[in-house]
Each structure stands twice: as C-alpha cells, then as structure tokens.
Design a protein that fits this description.
The complex is a heterodimer of chains A (189) and B (303). Chain A is mainly α and 189 residues long. Chain A is 76% helix and 0% strand. Chain A has helices at 2-54, 62-80, 86-109, 111-114, 117-152, 157-160, 176-179. The radius of gyration of chain A is 23 Å and the shape is elongated. Helix content of chain B is 66%, strand content 7%. Chain B is globular and about 75 Å long. In chain B, helix 1 (2-17) runs antiparallel to helix 7, helix 6 runs antiparallel to helix 7 and helix 8 runs antiparallel to helix 10. Chain B is built from 10 helices and 4 strands. The chains are: A mainly alpha (189), B alpha+beta (303). The interface between A and B is medium-sized, with 22 and 19 residues.
Chain lengths: 189, 303
Amino acid sequence: MWVLLILAVVIVLWVIAAYNGLISLKNQTVNAFKQIDVQLKRRHDLIPNLVNAVKGAMDFEKSTLEAVIQARNQAVKVNASGPDNVKQISQAENALSGALSRLLVTVERYPELKATSNIAQLQEELTSTENRIAFARQLYNDTATQYNTKQQQFPTTLVAGLAHAERADLWEIEDQAERAVPQVDLSRR
Amino acid sequence: MFFAWLGFGGDYVWALSSTHHPFPFLGILLTSVAVVAAWYAYKTGPEKVLWATGAHEVIDPQTDNERQLVNAVEEMAIAAGVPRPRIWVVPDDDPNAFATGHDPRDSHVAVTQGLLRICNRDELQAVIGHELGHVKNLDVRLMTTLAALVGAVLLVRDGMGRTMNFGRLSRSGRRSKDAGPLVAILLALWVISWIIAPLVTQLLAFAVSRKREYLADAMSAQFTRNPLALASALEKIESAVAPTESIKRGAAHLCIADPLGRHFTNREGFLADTFATHPPMGMRISRLKGMGYAELKKAAQPL
C-alpha cells in the first residue's frame, strides 16, 4: 500500500519536472530565435553609419559600397513587409551577408587602407556584426537541438504531447554559394 | 553546516564539562557571525576583487583594442546566451583574464592589457569564451562563495582564540569535577577541526577550481567552435611566464591562468593535485588540440 503511494508521488513529481523542463527549453528556443532577429536588425541600423564613415577613404570602390547599401535597403524593405515571408527575408539577409563579405575582401586587398583608423574600425565592426549573427544562429541551433532531443527521448517523450512540444526547425544555409567551404589541402608533397 | 558543527560542537563540549550554560549561545552566536561575515563577503566580493586589481571599467571604448574587446565580449555573450557582462581592463602587462560576479545577470569580465596586446581577435574571443563559460556554469558564484567562506573561517577562528582563553581562566576551578574521556575526545576533535578548517576550505577551493577550468575550456570551444584559438592563446599566456603582479593570491582561482606563476601548476603529481588552482597548462592545451584535430580531420574528409 505504502509502496504504491510513494510510487505514485514519485511519478507525479517526475511528470511535473519533465513538463517544466520541456516548457523551459521551448521558451529558450523561441527566445534564441528572436535573438537572431535582434542581431539582424542591429546590422540594418549599423550599415548606413559605417558606410558613411568610410565613403571618403574608399572613393575608388564606390560600387562595392553601393552594393552593400542596396542589399541593406532591400533587406529592410522585405522585413517591413511582415514576418510571414520567411523565405524572402532569409534570401535578402543572405544577399546582404554576401555584399558585406565582398566589402571585407575588398578592404583586405588594400593594406594601405587599413592604416586609416576609420577603415580598421569598419573592418572590426563588420567582423563583429557578422560574428554576432553567426553566434545567435549557433545558439538557436544548439538550443533547438537540445529541445528536439529532449522531446524525442524516452521517457520524456511521454510528456511531450502534454507540453505541446513540437520539433523546432534548425537554421540552415539556403544559399549554395555560402555553403561552399574553401578547399584546404593538408597532404604534404 | 561546517560552522554549525564548529559552534554547536563547542557548546556540547562546554555543556558536558560544566554544569553552566545549557543554552547553546556560543553555537548561535558563531553561526550568525559566520553567516553575516560570509554574506557580507559574498555581496561585496566582486567589487573588492576588481578594486584590488586596480581595474577600470570600459564604458566608452576609445582605442581599437578596447573596441575589439567590447565586441568580442558581446559576441560571446550572444553565443553563450547570457546578458552582456560588465567589462574591465586591468593595467598589467602580463596576459591574464578573470571573471567574477554572483550570477549571469550580474557578472564582470576583466582582462589585462597584456592580453589585449599579445592576442589576436580569435584568441581574445576564445579567452572571453572561457570566462563566460565560468559565468554560465555559475562558477563565479561558487568561487565567490568559497572565497567568502575561507575568509569567514579565518576571521571567526581568530576571534574564538581569545574567547577560549578567557573561558578557561574563569572556570579552571570546576574543571576537575567529572570530565571523562568522551569530553576529552570531543574537545580534541573540535580543536583539531578549528585548526584545519581554513586549510580544508582552501583545498576545497583548489579542487573545485581545477575541475572547473577544464569545463570552461570546453565551453569556450563550444561557443567559438574554434578550440585551437584557445589552445594558442593559452600557449601565448604560458610563454609569458612573469607573474601577474596586480592580481593577489586570494583571487588566483578566478583567473584563466595561475597569476602567481607557481611552478608546480605545470606538473602532475600529488603536490599539484592538492594545491594548484589550475590544471597543468600542457594538459589543457593538449585536450583543446584533441578537440581541434577531430574537427580538422572531419573537415578534411573527401566530400
């Protein structure tokens, strides 16, 4: 009799703990996803200032700068149209990332430019901005993976329905060009 | 707990050896003194540590180095999913870094100027990742509490020494009544635990600290996905052997590398296992490289 009662109490406590664990992970996943938005928004706000600051020093690379501005405006426009067309938004953001990385490569090509502190600052800010977005996505993917694993594993999976836990999609690269990694040859010849 | 034993145990011995003082005032007094002292040290700990190192907070970054530092910290805070800690720079030429604070919402990360000077961006980021690993694991709270405990035990023991002398004088006449061997054993045990109390807490701090360093190294690798950067940062820090002068002994277990430059930190063995605040640098670097090469191998496989 007592054994059964204790067993029942233990099971109830476990269900509560598992349920709360799932809910906590779910909210962390949602929050991590919003963090990506925050970082993308920050990038939109930052780019005009950065480009203005280096316009004078980079007269001869006007087209690269213009491409960045254009990609940025496109991304802002798509974002303003609403959060529903995720595909278009991610396309616009990827285009912006591409334009920014071209700008960084351009800066690398002129070592004398880096002596100008404005340019060094631009480089640092661009690197940091791209890193922030990458890290926000990384955190989202890590948290979502944890959440997915938890809700699929036995015995937590028994409570998953109760907590309305659904698989969270991981962030993936849509642009094939971005997926390509530089080839590294490690063989000794 | 430990304090309760130190206090109430004393009362028990006292009650056995004399007919007076059945009320455990000594235990209550000691425990409350210890709690207050520990709480005070815990509350003011981070400020004290930062003040002792002479660090200044980076609020509005001026130089390129400082800007990079602020960016690196903010990036790592995003990767770790913790709020941005307050950032401090210690005016010391030796490379080192430490984190302090109570919980992720109130944390501080400090680096020395030497670290900013010798590390590139990736390495700096990896070091910051290590420190934020401490913050996210709540190591900073544990470490601050341990530091507070060590201090409180020392403080109370010093006070106790005087009280004991006074007590012995006042009741020396009644002592012969009916002490018995049990009382003697208990008294001896109690006195011994007083003597070793600070040592025990200190050793505890060391042991906890070493385990936590490995964990924070792994967390840094998880945040940056670049364990080799931390390995090379550690190599650079190690090769700058000079002790970090502005970081005092009490804060040693908070730092990324042992600031005192003690030799046994770099060796395995009983002495190091007992007293070092950090695991041997060679072990840490080789573990990180192990993580890194696993990734390199994966990346090099034919697509």
